[in-house]
Write a structure and sequence with these properties.
Blueprint lengths: L3 E4 L9 E6 L3 H5 L4 H9 L4 E5 L7 E7 L5 H25 L7 H11 L1
């Protein structure tokens, strides 16, 4: 079963909780071969993550979080795990002196994590 998916239509059971994240972090949250999003799914206790394909006008991606049976604790754990990835990317960017809007930030972070 898939832990996460990027598309226009959410195939996962609802209800869905929307959680907006700046688009620059999407690749890091998904991770190489979807590994990061799978780990988030597991750490949250099984919260599905659907990422809407299009960005908002503010340059964000909408993450729709849901569980097979509604569980606010799992959704909150999922949000926290996503924010942990965002925080890691931000710390890496600061340490390397990178501009957060540069796409290369995410690529460099992912390459570092794959080592």
């Amino acid at each position: 079963m898939r832990a996460g998916l990027i598309s226009d239509l959410n195939p996962f059971p609802g209800p869905h909780t929307n959680f907006n994240i700046p688009s620059v972090y999407t690749e890091a949250i998904v991770g190489p071969y979807g590994n990061s999003i799978k780990q988030i799914f597991q750490k949250s206790g099984g919260c599905y993550i659907h990422i809407l394909r299009d960005e908002t006008a503010d340059g964000e991606r909408v993450f729709q979080l849901s569980c097979p049976t509604p569980d606010p604790d799992k959704v909150n754990r999922c949000k926290q795990e996503i924010m942990n990835v965002v925080d890691s990317v931000q710390k890496y960017a600061q340490a390397e002196g990178l501009n957060m809007v540069e796409h290369k930030l995410v690529i460099e972070y992912l390459l570092k994590e794959m080592k």
